[in-house]
Amino acid sequence: MPNCFKNHYPSTRVVIDCTEFFIDTPSSLVRQSASWSSYKSHNTAKCLIGIAPHGHVTFVSPIFEGSVSDRSITAQSGLLELLERGDSVMADKGFDVQDLLVPLGVRLNIPPFKRGDTQMLPQDVEKTKKLLLSEFM
């Protein structure tokens, strides 16, 4: 495990994010609707990718239609069954999965984010710096 993780996030098992890719427009209107991504404004498919702190891809979920939320993909992907009590998962602020992890004894590390027009608190700025250094060093 790289020192930046060892020092600040030693229990990190996996860094997760969903990746979304364009697909041809399905001929079925039902499939068109199910694969439509409002984020990409295109028909897409997506999957959850898990990367270990040392940089290797350790998890790739099945492919889901573009309209499926990151949260739903995380819940249905099979990743949760691989986590162990005491692990932590690192993700971006879009992953609202804390309630899925707590019953498993798994912690979620996400960067703090600004709400409304208020500035981030100094401790949140520091936490964000640590997370970014862990992800990119």
Task: Explain what you see.
The protein is α/β, with parallel strands linked by helices. It is 28% helix and 26% strand. It is built from 5 helices and 7 strands. Strands 1, 2, 3, 4, 5, 6 and 7 form a 7-stranded mixed beta sheet that branches. A hairpin with a 4-residue loop joins β2 (36-37) and β3. The chain is globular and about 50 Å long. The termini are close together.
List the SSEs and their pairings.
Layout lengths: L2 H6 L3 E11 L6 H7 E2 L4 E10 L5 E4 L3 E2 L4 H7 L11 E3 L7 H4 L5 E3 L12 H15 L1
Parallel strand pairs: 1-6, 6-7
Antiparallel strand pairs: 1-3, 2-3, 3-4, 3-5
Give a brief rundown of this model:
The chain has 137 residues and is of the alpha/beta class.
**Main sheet properties:** 7 strands, mixed
How many strands? 7
Number of helices: 5
Order of helices and strands: HEHEEEEHEHEH
**Average pLDDT across residues?**
85
Overall 3D form: globular
Query: Which runs of at least 5 residues are low in confidence (pLDDT < 50)?
Result: none
Beta fraction:
25-35%
CA(first)-CA(last) distance:
12 Å
Briefly note the structural class of the backbone: alpha/beta
- Percent of residues in helices: 25-40%
Radius of gyration: 17 Å
Keywords:
137 residues; alpha/beta; 7-stranded mixed sheet; 5 helices; 26% strand
